[in-house]
Amino acid sequence: MLAPLRADMFDPVCPSDLSPLRIGDKWGGMIIRCLEDGPRRFSELRVPLRGITSKVLTQSLRSLEHRGLISRADNCYVLTALGRSTIEPMDTMCAWSRAHWDELIDAREKILK
To answer: CA 22, 92, 58: angle at the middle one, nearest 5?
Structure first.
């Protein structure tokens, strides 16, 4: 049995929102992170993905499934071998985003002004 996903798994100002590189849509990388340790039910995924609607989560899961990154079995979603192969590049993207966090924030704020 897997430990429950933490509600605070993702910072509200998650760097994935600032990263110019994404896997799938806005939520794709975070969904993959949620599945990193094993299969999860739809309701479990909603816990750390604050702000996502059921409709958008369903769309994101279908998109990842159509790309071959996740599969669904026994009412759970699980990473495929292809999906698991995205973990290392995601780690690199996350490290890059953390290293350039201030620059990414500054660029976003310039656009919003």
So the answer is: 30
Helix and strand counts by DSSP (H, E) for the chain: 6, 2
The rounded distance, in Å, linking the Cα atoms of 15 and 100 is 10
Q: State the amino acid at position 31 in one-letter form.
A: I
Take residue 113 and report the two structure tokens written for it.
């002004």
In whole angstroms, give the CA distance from residue 24 to residue 35: 15
- The alpha-helical segments, DSSP class H, found in 8-100 are 28-35, 42-46, 54-66, 81-84, 87-99
Beta partners for residue 80, in sequence order:
none
State the amino acid at position 47 in one-letter form. V
For the segment 13-59, what is each residue's pLDDT rounded down to a tens digit? 665 666 777 788 889 999 999 999 999 999 999 999 988 999 999 99
Beta bridge partners of 73: 76
- 4, 3, 28: which is closest to 14 by C-alpha? 28
